[in-house]
Amino acid sequence: MKDRLKIAVVDDDPKWVAFVASLLNRQGHEVTRFSSAGKFFDSLVKTHFSLLVLDMNLPGMHGREIIRVVRVNPETRRMLIVGLSDCEVQSSHAVEALNAGADEYLPKPVDVEFLAARVAALLRRHQESKEPDAERLCVGSLVVLPAQQEASVAGKKVALTNLEFQLLLYFLRNANRVLTRQLILDQVWGIKTPMDTRTVDKHVESLRRKLGDVGKRFETVVKVGYLLKV
């Protein structure tokens, strides 16, 4: 039997929330409605949601900021997020939402069948991510699948060398931690004796360039090494 998943819908339009909740309930999921970001954040203390359907234009706190809070929290960072907007949608809006960490971005009103199909596709990804060999690491719009050795930014695959991929994995698994150049050489290159650390600098610079806006999260710690901020 298909798992009954918990889904949060955050929107201040009661009619729209009722519509979305009815749709997802018919798919067999448990839906909780929230009219504000504050009420949604309060609920996260005791409830784990698999998916968030979010109005990007909530009063008081923009959807981008809500997504960033969800992504930076280790307990919620793997939550799937569908951003919705009822204003005039421009490509820049979608890019901003995806760069913040949304998995999908759609305009209101959304065709019922299309929304159902997108939610179903995202939830299939959730189910697959529960498999032991389907680890999925996310930072903003960056998604990394270690088993497949694949990395994508905003849905577009990024071509990385094997060494660049291993370096990226090491940063992701040690996020928000200052890593010295020598430690990186030790753990990624397997070199335990001191040597010229410029090779680390060159590879980090390559990652920054290839990952676009996500690459800006790599911070240089002067005379020490690097930090991946999430």
Q: How would you explain this protein's 3D organization?
A:
With 230 residues, the protein is of the alpha/beta class. The chain has two domains: 125 residues, Response regulator (Rossmann fold, 3-Layer(aba) Sandwich), CATH 3.40.50.2300; 91 residues, Orthogonal Bundle (Arc Repressor Mutant, subunit A), CATH 1.10.10.10. It is built from eight helices and twelve strands. The strands form three sheets. It has a five-stranded parallel sheet with strand order 2-1-3-4-5, sandwiched between helices. Strands 6-7-8-9 form a four-stranded antiparallel sheet, with helices on one face. Strand 6 and strand 7 form a beta hairpin. Helix 6 packs across helix 7 and helix 6 packs across helix 8. The longest helix has 18 residues. The chain is elongated and about 65 Å long. It starts with 5 loop residues before the first strand and ends with a strand. The model has no long low-confidence stretch (mean pLDDT 83).
Average predicted local confidence, pLDDT: 83
Uncertain segments of ≥5 residues (pLDDT<50)? none
Which descriptor suits the 3D outline?
Answer: elongated
Beta strand count: 12
Question: How much beta, percentage-wise?
Answer: 15-25%
The top level CATH class name of the largest domain: Alpha Beta
Furnish the topology, listing elements before pairings.
Layout: E1 6-10, H1 14-26, E2 30-34, H2 37-43, E3 51-55, H3 63-72, E4 80-85, H4 91-100, E5 104-107, H5 112-129, E6 137-139, E7 142-145, E8 150-153, E9 156-157, H6 162-172, E10 179-180, H7 181-189, H8 198-210, E11 218-221, E12 225-228
Helix pairs in contact: 6-7, 6-8
